[in-house]
């Protein structure tokens, strides 16, 4: 006959307490249920495990022998369950992370730290198109994505936000502002900003290439691009300018292109996002490493 785990648990607690009332309290059961479990176990074994009187409860010789052999076996079973729980919590399997542009130091450090602490989980990374920050997530091509903010999608969750960086205006060396050491956002009035093509949502594209200064002056919309390299090519050709965060601008320096720090605009930021309702233990662990990197 198959042994019920609840019966064994009841026996072990009663062997500790030698009192039906305290055993019932510890197990959140009624005393009658404790008695039922014990009687069922005794029937399985074929003999009494406790001597019960109105004044005391004591182990029988059979109960003492059973307790001696059961304790290490039950402890081993608990270790098996705990090991499985830790395995799940410590992230096993594979985690697919997408990112826009080049993975920066924060992301790379998080990947390295996560991988060293969770060797059972393999992280795959892939680059996401500049003009489609959310598509890979929705197609289940990645489990999470590092994207430029803002994110206001009902079906996606925004996790850790990091890498807040000053924005720069990237222009060709012959541009009227190219010799400036810095500019204010209002000086974008009348300029042409190269835009990012769809399928990125409008609010996201507007944040990367606004059509108005903070005071409301008009900024002209330039040609649409799908990648950063396309945008840099158009900048070098004098077709317009782009707002690019300082580290990205410095990593992608081209001859004939100048990066000018700009004030009066929100910093560029990155965020980790995933599908709503799909925060696995693996993803939760990676988000923690990203937050603390």
TrEMBL record:
Database matches in CDD domains: PBP2_LTTR_aromatics_like
Keywords: DNA-binding, Transcription, Transcription regulation
Keyword Transcription: yes
HTH lysR-type domain mapped to chain residues: 3-60
InterPro entries listed in its UniProt record: LysR_HTH_N, LysR_subst-bd, WH-like_DNA-bd_sf, WH_DNA-bd_sf
Similarity field: Belongs to the LysR transcriptional regulatory family.
PANTHER family for this protein: HCA OPERON TRANSCRIPTIONAL ACTIVATOR HCAR, TRANSCRIPTIONAL DUAL REGULATOR HCAR-RELATED
Name of the featured protein: LysR family transcriptional regulator
Species for this entry: Kribbella speibonae
Taxonomic lineage from the root: Bacteria, Bacillati, Actinomycetota, Actinomycetes, Propionibacteriales
């Amino acid at each position: 006959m198959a042994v019920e785990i609840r019966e064994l648990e009841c026996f072990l607690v009663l062997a500790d307490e030698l009192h039906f009332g305290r055993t019932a309290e510890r197990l959140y059961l009624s005393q009658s249920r404790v008695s039922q479990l014990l009687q069922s176990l005794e029937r399985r074994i074929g003999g009494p495990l406790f001597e019960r009187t109105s004044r005391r409860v004591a182990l029988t010789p059979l109960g003492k022998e059973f307790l001696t052999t059961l304790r290490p076996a039950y402890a081993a079973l608990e270790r098996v369950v705990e090991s499985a729980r830790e395995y799940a919590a410590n992230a096993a399997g594979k985690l697919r992370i997408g990112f826009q542009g080049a993975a920066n130091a924060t992301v790379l450090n998080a990947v390295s730290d996560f991988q060293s602490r969770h060797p059972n989980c393999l992280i795959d990374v892939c680059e996401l198109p500049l003009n489609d920050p959310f598509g890979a997530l929705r197609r289940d091509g990645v489990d999470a994505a590092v994207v430029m903010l803002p994110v206001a999608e009902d079906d996606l969750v925004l996790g850790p936000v990091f890498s807040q960086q000053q924005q720069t205006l990237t222009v060709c060396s012959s541009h009227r502002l190219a010799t400036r050491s810095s500019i204010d956002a209002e000086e974008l009035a009348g300029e042409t900003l190269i835009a990012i093509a769809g399928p990125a949502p409008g609010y996201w594209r507007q944040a990367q290439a606004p059509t108005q200064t903070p005071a409301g002056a008009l900024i002209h919309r330039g040609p649409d691009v799908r990648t950063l390299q396309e945008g840099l090519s158009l900048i070098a050709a004098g077709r317009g300018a782009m707002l690019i965060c300082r580290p990205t601008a410095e990593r992608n320096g081209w001859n004939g292109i100048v990066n000018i720090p700009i004030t009066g605009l929100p910093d560029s930021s990155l965020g980790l996002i995933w599908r709503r309702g799909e925060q696995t233990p693996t993803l939760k662990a990676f988000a923690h490493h990203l937050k603390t990197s």
